[in-house]
Amino acid sequence: MVQKREGINVLGALSDLVILVLMVGGAGFGGYYLGVHQQLAPVQKVAPGTKDAVQEQPAKALAEADSKMLPITEEEKPTTKPASAKPKASRKYWLSSSGVEYIGYSITVKVNGTAVDNFFGPGKNVDITRLVKKGSNTVVFDAKELGEQYNKHAGDDKAVLSVKIVSGPYIQENFSSKDVLLSYARNAAESETFNDTKTFVGE
User: Fold this and answer.
1) Which of 26, 107, 145, 185 could form a disulfide with 162 if both were Cys (CB 3.0 to 4.6 A apart)?
2) Partners of residue 161 on adjacent β-strands
3) Burial 153-164 (b: 16+ CB within 10 A, else e)
4) Residue 101: enclosing H or E segment and its boundaries?
5) Which of 100, 85, 76, 80 is nearest to 157 (CA)?
6) Global pTM?
7) pLDDT digit string (tens) for 31-63?
8) 3-state secondary structure at position 36
9) What is the DSSP letter of 3?
10) Residue 196 DSSP one-character state
11) Cβ(181)–Cβ(167) below 8 Å
12) In angstroms, how far is CA 194 from the centroid of its own chain?
């Protein structure tokens, strides 16, 4: 009895194996058939003039079309735009004091109504570019007499404190006389308070 059961089990296992091999083989053959004879998006031929249809272009026709294309001439070749010219350097405006200190005056300067600074002696440069506009500009020089204790050159009209408005490409101490737009001065021989208005033209 035991031998019969073992024989039956072996036959059953063999039959299962044969069925499995047949199923795998069938699946592989079916996939191969579909891959060779079918397309996922089959191309259909339609009558000429069908809307949205793409006409098939024979290789010969494409080659002839390419041969008829004209070469690009030098004039037609795209050119790079030339680099734009550098912007013109902005002009600077500044107040510069020179002369002698302790002449007994404090000169306050206003440009177009805005107080800028006080000047007591030489060697001071103050940028006023932001206050200068194109065309006419108004400058007020308010020279206050400080008294004898601040005047070491009393009676000397050659002891002068000068405040100039200068224009140039950049602020500097050593500027040319042609860069001076206007000048204002007081001397140690004077003893009054002055309030003077002048104008200059900005670019």
Assistant:
1) 185
2) 99, 186
3) beeeeebbbbbb
4) none
5) 100
6) 0.57
7) 655 555 554 445 556 566 666 655 555 555 556
8) helix
9) H
10) E
11) yes
12) 48
Report the sign of the C-alpha dihedral through residues 194, 195, 199, 200, in that order: positive
Q: Which two structure tokens, joined as six digits, stand for 90?
A: 């902005």
Tokens of 184: 């204002």
Residues 6+ away with beta carbon under 8 Å from 145: 104, 105, 190, 191, 192, 193
Distances (CA, A) of 38 to 26, 43, 54, 147, 155: 17, 11, 21, 112, 117
Residues 6+ positions from 132 with CB-CB distance below 8 Å: 93, 111, 112, 202
CB 160 within 8 A of CB 97: no
Distance (Å, whole) CA 65 – CA 45: 23
The answer to whether 99 and 162 have CB atoms below 8 angstroms apart is yes
- Mode of pairing for the β-strands spanning 160-168 and 114-119: unpaired
Encoded amino acid at 79, one letter: T
Question: What's the sign of the alpha-carbon dihedral 116, 117, 118, 121?
Answer: negative
Give the whole-angstrom CA distance, residue 148 versus residue 140. Answer: 25
3-state secondary structure of 91: coil
Q: What single letter denotes the amino acid at residue 91?
A: R
Domain boundaries, the chain: 1-32, 92-202
- Specify whether the CB–CB gap between 99 and 163 falls below 8 A: no
pLDDT of residue 78 exceeding 70, the answer is no
**pLDDT tens string 145-161:** 999 999 999 999 999 99
